Amino acid sequence: MPWFMLFVAIVAEVIATSTLKSTEGFTRLWPSAIVVVCYETAFILLSLTLKKIPVGIVYAVWSGVGVALITLVAWYFLGQTLDVAGVAGVALIVGGVVVINAFSKTVVE
Fold first, then answer.
1. Pick from 70, 73, 91, 107: CA 20 to 30 A from residue 22's CA?
2. Using CA atoms, how far apart are residues 50 and 65, in angstroms rounded to an integer?
3. DSSP per position, 25-56
4. Domain residue ranges in the chain
5. What is the pLDDT of residue 108?
6. Half-sphere exposure for 98 (CA within 13 Å, toward CB)
């Protein structure tokens, strides 16, 4: 269950981050509400995962998967361009998360 909560927290954070620009400095109500609710959800779920998974592992997965997802969302939905260096960098980040989860003795199931 903590891994599922972490995944939902990451998705909520990606939704909030990708909606942030459309708040226009928090002057638009509905995009602002989405951002606040999604960030609140993300941080509550993130804090709950820390009861079972070490903070270093949680943050590595949170940041790595979050970077990869927000990059894909920005490319697909927001028209951000991706060059080879950007794709390689994201692949290295995801690879680091995989290495931590596959080989670290501190990962708790």
1. 91
2. 17
3. TTTSHHHHHHHHHHHHHHHHHHHHHTTTS-HH
4. 2-103
5. 60
6. 7
pLDDT tens track for 23-64 = 999 999 999 999 999 999 999 999 999 999 989 889 889 989
Type and span of the H or E element at 5: helix 2-19
Q: Is 85 exposed, middle or buried (0-12, 13-18, 19+ CB in 10 A)?
A: exposed
**Both ends of the chain: CA-CA distance in Å?**
9
The span from the CA of 19 to the CA of 23, in Å, is 7
The Cα–Cα gap between 12 and 72 comes to 15
Cβ neighbours of residue 93 under 8 Å, at least 6 residues apart? 63, 64, 67, 68
The C-alpha atoms of residue 40 and residue 74 are separated, in whole angstroms, by 21
Maximum mean pLDDT: which of 18-27, 57-66, 87-96: 18-27
**CA angle (62 as vertex; 11, 82 as ends), nearest 5:** 75
